[in-house]
Each structure stands twice: as structure tokens, then as C-alpha cells.
């Protein structure tokens, strides 16, 4: 099996962990502090990666630290915004709206790096916005506050993927990933100091199981595979694997939290997933075949 095919499979498996983690995070955070939950998540992820890739720690340099900060800022922002949003909206809404980062990536590449945006991207954006409208707009033009947080988080994750792509040629990516997790942990620790709901040993049901699932398979595993795999796949291919995340998240939300799967979620989600597919398919190659 070629490396790119192996990493593609590993990334899809990671998106399953990501999707299921939406449910664990929503239950774990409850009415408590999202910063405490995320602090534990990133600390455990850091410890796991440092233990597994202990021999890589000797390659940490000042440049590694710089890269981890540049990648860590958008990741920290996206993760915090998403976790806050999950407190106020459903798992399905959160997953599908977060999926908009797939469309934001090429658009931000155009705005930030002045790279041309294909016409299919604008078609995809129209479909995605229509799907978003169907899912989240209720009672006229009002938006659920949680949905607004999630829309903001999609921008954070899009910038994160772009930053990873910018530094994907690094010979040893794991030291930067370990420092990236540590940077996010420190960031959450700082934010938690200003959160009146911060309880360091909460008794919320599902808190610790949620932290462990979010930390190990959904964070340590996924971000390690993503940062290593992006050297072989590129930003767009990595983004394509994100198509599976809202599907897994919705299934988990239905079976674990008994969330309702409404016709609005179905049709809106279908439009968003279709938009993602349109954005990622190389129509020239398809037509040639």
C-alpha cells in the first residue's frame, strides 16, 4: 500500500474518532468550563505523544517552537470556539457547520496567499450556505448562539489546516505536534483562570471519559496522523477526509444522545456534503476518464 493511501485510510479513521468525540465533549463539558475540559484533553494528548515519540524530542529547536505557536493559535481558537458552541447547539449542527472549513480553505488561500479560486468553489459555497440556512435558521432570520460560535470555529480550523500545509515540509513533524498540544494546553490553562465556572475536579457525569476519548483517539492520534499525512496528501486531500466527520457525529448524536434527526438536518447536511464534494472533485480528470 502506498503511503498516501495508508494516510488517507488513517485520516478517515481519525475523522470517525473526531465525529464521535462531539458527543463525548458535549456530555463532558455539560454546564462546566470548556477551558478546564480542553486543558485536560491537551495535557493528556501531549503526554501520550511525548511518550510514544520520546526519541523525537531531541529534535526540538527554536524553529520547532515557532512553528508550533503559528499552528497552535488557529487550532486553539477553533477548538475553544467549537467546544463553547457545543454547549448551546446540537452535535449534528456543530459537525455540519464545522465542515464548512473545507470550503473556507481554498477561499482563504485566495485571500491570504492570492491563489486563484476555481469557479466550482463559488458554486459549492452557494450550496453550502443554502444548506447552512436550512439547518440553523429558525424563526425568521435568527441564529442559535451555539451555531454562531461554530461558524466562527470553522474559520479557526481552516486557518489551522493552511498553517499545517505551510510547514508540512518539515523533516520531523512530531516535535512540532507535541509542542502544539502543549501550547494549546497552556492556552486553555490561562483562559480557565478567567472563567468563573472553572472547577478543576468536576463531578459532571461523563467528564473524565469524555476527556480521555477526546484526548487520545480524537486528538493525539488524529493530529499526529494529520500533520504527518499532509506531507503526502496536501491541504485539499486532508480537507476531503473531513467529509466523514459530520456523518459519524450525527450517527453518534442520534444513538448516544437521542438527538432528533430532522428533515432540515438531512437536506441541509446533504447540501453541505455535496458542496464539499464539488469543491474537492477534479472534474477535468473525471471527464477524461
UniProtKB/TrEMBL annotation:
According to Swiss-Prot or TrEMBL, what is its membrane topology?
Multi-pass membrane protein
Q: Which domain of life is it from?
A: Bacteria
Subcellular location per the Swiss-Prot or TrEMBL entry:
Cell membrane
Show where the EamA domain sits. Answer: 7-136, 145-278
Q: Which organism is it from?
A: Spirosoma taeanense
Q: Under the cellular component aspect of Gene Ontology, which terms does the record hold?
A: plasma membrane
Q: Does the keyword Cell membrane apply?
A: yes
Q: Where are the transmembrane segments?
A: 7-29, 35-55, 67-88, 94-112, 119-136, 148-165, 177-194, 206-226, 238-258, 264-283
Major site of localization recorded for this protein: membrane
Designated name of the protein? DMT family transporter
Q: Name the UniProt key words of this record, in alphabetical order.
A: Cell membrane, Membrane, Transmembrane, Transmembrane helix
